[in-house]
AraC family transcriptional regulator
Amino acid sequence: MYEWNETVQRMVDWVETHISEDTSLLKMSEALGYSPFYCSRQFNQYTGMTLRDYIRTRRVSRAAMELRDTDQRVLDIAVKYGFSSQEAFTRAFVKAFRLTPAAYQKEPRPIPLAIRQEVFSPYHYWIKERDNMSEVRLKPAEMKVEFIPAHRFIGIWDLAVTNYGDFWGNGHSCDEVSGTLESMSNHTLEGQLGQTAGWFYRDGQKGYLYGIPVPLDYDGPISEGMECREIPESEYLVFFHPPFDYLKDNGAVMSTVEEAAWSFDPGRLGFEWDEEIKQDYQRHYPEGYGYAVLRPVKKKG
């Protein structure tokens, strides 16, 4: 069912493995056993971009991460990622991020990295293996208590929407927002999963948020169009389901977890909802973590 997705993912994986080499459509097609025309057509169909453009944007983005995380010379990084000269690398970098590599290395800031394409994820392998098996019954939502220290949250709060799909359909570019947050991945709050969604409440109205939790002492730049808000420390009731088959069970898992989260009486555990926080978090990584809703609580009395 997912043969073409898997083929294109193999192309993506090949590019990522050989990103610092002299990659070409011909070399990739020879390695994968398909014609260059087939590879080119399928790659464009499933990713929405040409292979040449994908390699170019991923090279400059991977180079940016090395500029951020290492003290290598700009020239050495340029050569490593296949640029003919430091000048050629600088032109590509300025075109992608509107600043020079030297300026970025000296003072890293949020930039819209091109993220790795994903058209065939690890959980699809499980689907393939399950095709001839009987349906696995969903587990009931589980619950645990988790403490999250005071932190800052960098992202977008949109009061006009209340869910993930509508959020991206309301003028927010998924690639640009996710890529920018990815460039800040080295600042993620310890113990958290990185890019995070959720809900917030303002004057009795519910909205949707998307961003990244960072330490309380974060004082770096904030990308245009995003905000940085301080979130007090709190314990959270975490309602969750372990990893699952996204394509078959996502709706049922989300409904099960959210029904448990919204209907639970925290007084049963000696808690009450912490109204000071005014936002709930949502973790959605089906193939690795599963799905969870986190609601802040405090001890009663």
Q: What stands out?
A: Residues 200 and 260 are 18 Å apart (CA to CA).
